[in-house]
């Protein structure tokens, strides 16, 4: 996903600016804590920072990507860049001690060293205390990058020794662009980008044939509701329940239906660029003229209420039959 620091400016601008300035001024911190949800680019940016730190032909703050250090970091075999991940469910004291032992030796390629601790919140108490000693006495040319999705679970003494960088969830536009680059169709990418902030999860969803079929079935239900109202309960019985056959899938179906009505509202208020079902824009525009904003808002509220009832363990078939009757009105 990340090619260079300029790429990061589109979705983590604050972090890009801070790190780029620090690289240019040669004032990188001894320890960083990258905090944020999965899929926000923490590891990509950690590797990019390592490249900038070790690059032999650095251009302001951008690594050259072609020197020996950049290539070895990219391939994951630079001797002075170490990545520590949980061994099983936790990061153990022995792993931190092995890291400290490695860092007590002089650098293989230079005097610089960098280490990344993934899921730093999963360190055992002994491992965390062992790392604390490491952070208290940093070497001049050593950088620590700790990464976590749950920084509130970490020791305050460790937090106080790190510069905290909070990663924002990726905006849907970035997810959508990444999906299209991965070969996903634009109309499918637009929809999937609304469902998750995690690029890897988004690609997984987009490549799942069930999801592509789900999108078609939701569009079909909407068309039945508009053009053949009396057929909607039959469609729920014969088509919908077979495909959306567990609670998680039923909730996904309601979400996909919700986005259709949100698209109609977007058309009505003039935000056509926000429409998710791009391939249905002509149909949606026509229907937007036939409905009042109040009617569309009420339909959106009905779907949200159905989602709430689904979590309250209401019978899903009865729930959907009741919902389509409500959506047919107005």
UniProtKB/TrEMBL annotation:
Keywords: DNA replication, DNA-directed DNA polymerase, Nucleotidyltransferase, Transferase. The keyword Nucleotidyltransferase applies. It comes from the Bacteria. It catalyses: DNA(n) + a 2'-deoxyribonucleoside 5'-triphosphate = DNA(n+1) + diphosphate. Its EC number is 2.7.7.7. It is an enzyme of class 2 (transferase). Residues 246-328 form the DNA polymerase III delta subunit C-terminal domain. GO terms for molecular function: DNA-directed DNA polymerase activity. This is DNA polymerase III subunit delta'. The gene is holB.
């Amino acid at each position: 996903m990340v090619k260079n620091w300029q790429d990061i400016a589109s979705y983590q601008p604050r972090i890009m600016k801070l790190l780029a300035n620090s690289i240019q001024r040669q004032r990188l911190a001894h320890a960083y804590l990258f905090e944020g949800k999965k899929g926000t680019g923490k590891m990509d940016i950690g590797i990019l920072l390592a490249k900038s730190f070790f690059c032999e032909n650095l251009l302001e703050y951008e690594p050259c990507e072609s020197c020996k250090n950049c290539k070895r970091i990219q391939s994951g075999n630079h001797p002075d860049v170490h990545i520590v991940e949980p061994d099983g469910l936790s990061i153990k004291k022995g792993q931190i001690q092995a890291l400290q032992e490695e860092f007590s030796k002089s650098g293989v390629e230079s005097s610089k060293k960098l280490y990344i601790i993934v899921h730093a919140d999963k360190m055992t108490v002994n491992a965390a205390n062992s790392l604390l000693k490491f952070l208290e006495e940093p070497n001049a040319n050593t950088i620590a990058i700790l990464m976590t999705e749950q920084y509130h679970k970490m020791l305050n003494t460790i937090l106080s020794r790190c510069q905290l960088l909070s990663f924002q969830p990726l905006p849907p536009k970035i997810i959508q662009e990444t999906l299209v680059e991965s070969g996903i169709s634009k109309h499918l990418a637009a929809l999937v980008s609304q469902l998750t902030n995690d690029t890897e999860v988004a690609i997984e969803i987009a490549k799942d044939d069930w999801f592509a079929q789900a999108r078609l079935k939701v569009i079909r239900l909407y068309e039945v509701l508009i053009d053949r109202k009396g057929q909607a309960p039959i469609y729920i019985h014969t088509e919908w329940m077979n495909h959306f056959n567990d609670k998680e899938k039923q909730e996904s179906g309601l979400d996909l239906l919700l986005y259709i009505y949100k698209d109609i509202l977007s058309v009505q208020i003039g935000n056509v660029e926000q429409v998710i079902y791009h391939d249905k824009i002509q149909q949606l525009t026509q229907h937007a003229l036939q409905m009042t904003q109040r009617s569309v808002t009420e339909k959106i509220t009905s779907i949200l209420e159905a989602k709430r009832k689904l979590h309250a363990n209401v019978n899903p078939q009865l729930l959907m039959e009741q919902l389509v009757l409500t959506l047919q009105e107005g």
